[in-house]
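Following up on my earlier thread - several people asked me to post the actual chain instead of describing it. Fair enough. Here it is, all 121 residues.
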Amino acid sequence: MARIAWVNLPKGKHVEIALTYIYGVGRTTANQILEKVSIEKTRRIETLSEEELDIIRDVVKEMVVEGDLRRLVAGNIKRLQEINCYRGQRHRKRLPVRGQSTKTNARTRKGKSTAIAGKKK
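Reply from S.P.:
Thanks for posting it. Predicted structure:
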């Protein structure tokens, strides 16, 4: 089982897709990593040798991923809340932050709707 940045990568997937299981690595970054280490993106994880995995680990180690990135994002949100800016207030109230409409949508962010007593007439 391949393990990179404290994440177990799935065996049956292509390397490009498997790298996206690491928090902070998307498809574009995964392709850049594979170009840098000159590995085909269509190869499967189980076909990689331990040397190739070590090279990928070295490249990923230079990036901010997983726990460090999560801490960085949480710190940025906390800073916005502390300076009491508009985005920080939206985070604090658990409402959409980037200007989305909330009259009819935003159920994912707002949570399950609650009934209002005496509304039906």
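The domain at 67-110 is CATH 4.10.910.10 (30s ribosomal protein s13; domain 2). That should answer part of your original question.
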